[in-house]
Amino acid sequence: MMDIGSTELLMIVIVAIVVIGPKDLPRALYKVGQVIGKAKGMARHFRSGIDAMVREVELEEMEKKWKADNERIMREYAAANPAAAPVPTPAPEPAPAMEPLPEAPAALGAPPAPVTEGER
């Protein structure tokens, strides 16, 4: 990507020492490192988002292909076995009705009703 030779790197270091100064050079290099790290993190995040979108599109294409293959196989099977017509699935039975809840005491501070042996 960036091909920097040893002489070019030496020139950059000399210019940095002259322009920034030897006293502030470590702080400047630290800030440059932070900026480069943030840029790499943003690039990684962007790339992962693009990869996720590509995976979603590929998955949709595969689902369409599977659906088409499934329909083709079902047509071929129905043509080869006319007696094996698709059997409709029965509708699920409705859930049993629930019993109503007991009525709440009239006042919040009222004691609860006593429980008898038969209710336990």
TrEMBL record:
It is found in: Membrane. It holds the Pfam family TatA_B_E. Residues 85-103 have a biased composition (Pro residues). It is a single-pass membrane protein. GO terms for molecular function: protein transmembrane transporter activity. GO terms for cellular component: membrane. The chain crosses the membrane at residues 6-22. Residues 81-120 are annotated as: Disordered. Keywords: Cell membrane, Membrane, Protein transport, Translocation, Transmembrane, Transmembrane helix, Transport. Its main location: membrane. GO terms for biological process: protein transport by the Tat complex. InterPro entries: TatA/B/E, TatB. NCBIfam families: tatB. This is Twin-arginine translocase subunit TatB. It comes from Sphingomonas ursincola.
